[in-house]
């Protein structure tokens, strides 16, 4: 059947505009978390990863440092390491150091939506790891994309997805994503993934409501973005960052709570808020020891290894197709 052409309407052109208008009209009101990450939002997220209160980044980093040799062994000889959402590939360097020292990697394929950033990263990685084919792909890894041609000696594809970004997907999204990863990895492929674990509620609250207020700025940044890009009129002093914990499924929710009765105008549409009403801006799912394994199983991925820190706050898990 021929594809239906997109209808010309006077709806806002950008996906951001469409999603914000739709999300503010629904109940509960919500804005997808992916819209945090404009340039300022990405910088704020980077600052979050360096906060004392935000344990995931440094805990995962330490797990990679402590177990890199075992991971290299489990990855096997001549794998192509395909990193989803590579950014500056900071954590990957721990793995790349260990893999490159043994000359066991066939190629490194960083995938990121920002082509300019990706090129910079590729240049510095080629310098740091002479002889390693670095094959960047500018793409949105949640959609279909083609892998570049891999060196002929490549034995398998290993997808690397650190940071517990899988926790920002809904469960159906996570299932679809894992299915897509299994397809990209192909037969004999693998997934090495960072998975944040459910833990003491005070630790979780502090991580998402840090005393320095960086996470609050990160959350409020989506309103700044609406003001700038969607002709919004949000008064940033009339909104507060709020964190809620929920256990079904276990997650940290971020909200923007209206401090007063007010009207928010976006692209000419008016949305009425009563004091105390909120916009849900992010879910960060936290998993039990087997939480991700059961989702992955539905996608045809079998867990083979699991590495954690001594407190069991974070895990890095290896799955195979
Ligand atoms: C990107 N993602 C894994 C972060 C998280 O912890 O869910 C985003 C974040 N939100 C608030 N702080 C960090």
Q: Which ligands accompany this protein? A: N,N-dimethyl-L-histidine
Instruction: Identify the quaternary structure here.
Output: single chain
Please tell me how large the radius of gyration is: 21 Å
Average pLDDT level: 94
Keywords: Methyltransferase, Transferase
Domain Histidine-specific methyltransferase SAM-dependent: 17-320
Pfam family, one: Methyltransf_33
GO molecular function: methyltransferase activity
Describe this structure in words.
By secondary structure, this protein is of the alpha/beta class. Helix content is 36%, strand content 25%. The strands form three sheets. The chain has a seven-stranded mixed sheet, with helices on both faces. The longest helix has 21 residues, at 55-75. N,N-dimethyl-L-histidine is lined by residues 48, 56, 163-165, 167-168, 208, 215, 282, 284.
Overview features:
321 residues, alpha/beta, seven-stranded mixed sheet, four-stranded mixed sheet, 9 helices, 13 strands, 25% strand, disordered N terminus, binds N,N-dimethyl-L-histidine
Give a short overview.
Helices cover 36% and strands 25% of the residues. It has 321 residues and is an alpha/beta fold. Helix 2 (39-49) packs antiparallel against helix 8 and helix 3 runs parallel beside helix 4 (92-101).
What's the layout of helices and strands?
Elements: H1 15-25, E1 29-30, H2 39-49, H3 55-75, E2 79-84, H4 92-101, E3 105-112, H5 115-128, E4 137-138, E5 156-161, H6 171-185, E6 190-196, H7 201-208, H8 214-229, E7 239-247, E8 250-258, E9 262-266, E10 269-273, E11 278-285, H9 291-298, E12 302-308, E13 314-320
The chain binds N,N-dimethyl-L-histidine.
């Amino acid at each position: 059947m021929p594809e239906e052409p997109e209808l010309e309407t006077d709806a806002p052109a950008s996906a951001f505009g469409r999603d914000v208008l739709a999300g503010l009209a629904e109940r509960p009101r919500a804005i997808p978390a992916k819209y945090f990450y404009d340039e300022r939002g990405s910088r704020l997220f980077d600052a979050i990863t360096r906060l004392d209160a935000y344990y995931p980044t440094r805990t995962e980093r330490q797990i990679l440092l402590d177990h890199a040799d075992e991971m290299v062994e489990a990855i096997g000889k001549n794998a192509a390491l395909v990193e989803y959402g590579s950014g500056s590939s900071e954590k990957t360097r721990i793995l790349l150091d260990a893999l490159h020292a043994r000359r066991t990697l066939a190629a490194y394929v960083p995938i990121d939506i920002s082509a300019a950033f990706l090129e910079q990263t590729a240049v510095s990685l080629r310098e740091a790891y002479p002889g390693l084919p670095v094959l960047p792909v500018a793409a949105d890894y949640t959609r279909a994309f083609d892998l570049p041609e891999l060196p002929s000696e490549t034995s398998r594809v290993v997808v690397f997805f650190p940071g517990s970004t899988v926790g920002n997907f809904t469960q159906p999204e996570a299932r679809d994503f894992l299915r897509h990863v299994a397809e990209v990895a192909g037969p004999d492929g693998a997934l090495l993934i960072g998975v944040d674990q459910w833990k003491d509620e005070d630790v979780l609250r502090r991580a998402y409501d840090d005393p320095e207020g960086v996470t609050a700025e990160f959350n409020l940044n989506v309103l700044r973005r609406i003001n700038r890009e969607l002709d919004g009129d949000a008064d940033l002093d009339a909104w507060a960052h709020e964190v809620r914990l929920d256990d079904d499924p276990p997650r940290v929710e971020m909200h923007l709570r209206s401090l007063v009765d007010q009207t928010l105008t976006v692209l000419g549409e008016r949305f009425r808020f009563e004091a105390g009403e909120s916009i849900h801006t992010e879910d960060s799912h936290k998993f039990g020891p087997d939480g991700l394994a059961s989702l992955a199983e539905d996608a045809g991925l079998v867990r083979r290894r699991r590495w954690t820190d001594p407190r069991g706050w974070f895990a890095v898990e290896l799955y195979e197709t």
